[in-house]
Amino acid sequence: MQIKVTLLDDTLYECELDKHAKGQELFMKVCDHLNLLEKDYYGLAIWETPTMKTWMDLTKEIRRQVQGANYNFTFNVKFYPPDPAQLSEDITRYYLCLQLRKDILQGRLPCSFVTLALLGSYALQSELGEYDPEVHGSEYAKEMKMAQGQTKELEDKMMELHRTYRSMSPAQADLMFLENAKKLSMYGVDLHQAKDLDGVDIILGVCASGLMVYKDKLRINRFPWPKVLKVSYKRSSFFIKIRPSEVEHYESAIGFKLPNYKAAKKLWKVCVEHHTFFRLTSSEMATTPRKFLALGSKFRYSGRTQAQTRQASSLIDRPAPLFQRSSSKRNSRSLDGGISFLIRLMSLVSRAHGTLFRITCEMFKPVVMLNQCFPFSSFPQKRSKKLEGETIYIRHSNLMLEDLDKTQTEIMRHHTSISELKRSFMESVPEPRPSEWDKRLSTNSPFRTASINGQLQPAVSLMSSVQCRGT
Length: 471
Known about the structure:
This protein has 13 helices and 18 strands. By secondary structure, the protein is α+β, with helices and mostly antiparallel strands.
């Protein structure tokens, strides 16, 4: 059978499988195609309607889970990690960013104008890199769709914030995006239409922390997993049994009405999977009869739990994978933040002393670069790995190269000058009265330029001050 899977960057992956192939075989093919190792957070979605999806059961045959011969699926985030910083690889965080951008664009993850502009600026930094007026022009944010009916005011604010970022790598921009997105109230919530026992329309949301109840877009109740003793369904009704509090003596049961039997069963399965993934240490614990599961059902979550996934991630031993970003198609590597810092530092030094030094991407291993730039340092030697890329020219100081004609006193003076340049590069003036934007953008962030009296200063003035100090 011919299968098509739409990926998170909207590209299409096609493959041909045996008609008896199970979901696990297709899922592994997609993850191998994406070079993704931390795959337990993701899943394959079957779309019955444009707004109604069902997660593919990887233990069952694919053909038994679809209607007719429609073998079109999507690759999506299934379990949203509560702390994305604990993910081991940049590529995992990047695909999570793509999913969240889809959630925002499609209205599943509402956020304020301030947060939307901030997230958009990090998305621009991730896709386009640092702002370059000769390359990007004046209206480059139009191509970055963050919301339906995106306004020019939003695009201007995204570009204004993006232009303040300095030496922020794509991987660091992704992490900053996730650190702000995870604070949103609807982050990682799987929504299901329902009614309460009085027939009032509500929405039930399942997430890492428990079961939420929403009415008119406001959360009216919350049932954390530790307080839930059991979830079950009967016909089109869904029930949860709540653990009694210290002042109560009996367990309480709460019921909800779903549109039909299939919807009730789907909600029950989503609850079982989220509870097992986020609360249990291993999926084998869910194979034995438990009070949490409904009696008579054979369904059990068969994948790895978050605890097992984190343990497996800590054992990943491979170089940071190269991958292409959807807009700019630029190669990303987890070490590019350190490389950007070194390039900027060396460019500052070159303001005082101008000799052209040719560095190719073969030398782009931070430890190797430091040993070449600072022969007096005692960094451990590591063999550099060869990366394909363009040759980069940056100005390099004569004082940073060994010169037998210089006296020992002159060499020490030059080394002191370099140390001062490093220290002044990392210094920033604290802001006495941070604005709303500065509160959202960490004032201690090394990616911000220096600020004076609450106003961001352009990079040119910062470099000029460093140049004067060095000379």
